[in-house]
Amino acid sequence: MAYLGDAVYEFWVRTHLLSLGYEKVQELHQAAIGYVRAGTQAQILHRLMPELNDIEKQVVMRGRNAKGSCPRNVDVTTYRHATAFECLVGYWQLEGRLERMNWAFAQIDQILGDQQAR
Q1: Any residues with CB less than 8 A from the CB of 36 and at least 6 apart, and which?
Q2: What's the predicted TM-score (pTM) here?
Q3: CATH number of the domain that 8 lies in?
Q4: Among residues 36, 38, 33, which one has the least CA distance to residue 76?
């Protein structure tokens, strides 16, 4: 699910940035990095957790506890929380829970303190 969630989230980020008026490729790339890096995804997940239902929380726990290698530039805990966020997005996509996914995505700029929004 994390593999699918990563792709779905990346697509949303690129579409969202274009809707915010980003046009130059370098600006798009730099802004996208801010949204997709592991620390950001972990931060988003932490803010969404209180609003998740029991099934969604189970998906997060399974994703967080999944075995796998961790990149050297991020600590294991942050990386696992980022993977859990990607699993949650993948779950929503696979289950057709697009309203729920859009609800979460609609909160991201506020969660990030509007740091990427213009």
Answers
A1: 9, 10, 13
A2: 0.89
A3: 1.10.1520.10
A4: 38
Does residue 6 have an active-site annotation?
Answer: yes
The span from the CA of 64 to the CA of 62, in Å, is 6
58-113 residue pLDDT tens: 999 998 877 767 677 788 889 999 999 999 999 999 999 999 999 999 999 888 87
**Range of the structural domain that residue 103 is part of:** 2-13+25-111
117: left (phi over 0), alpha (psi -120 to 50) or beta: beta
Residues 6 or more apart whose Cβ sits within 8 Å of residue 12? 105
Task: Confirm whether 20 is domain-assigned.
Answer: no
Q: ∠ CA 20-91-50 to the nearest 5 degrees?
A: 75
Task: Examine residue 54 and state whether it is found in any structural domain, yes or no.
Answer: yes
Per-position b or e across 62-80, b if 16+ CB within 10 A of its CB: ebbeeeeeeeeeeeeebbb
Which of the following is catalytic: 6, 54, 75, 114? 6
Closest by CA to 86, choosing from 51, 37, 50, is 37
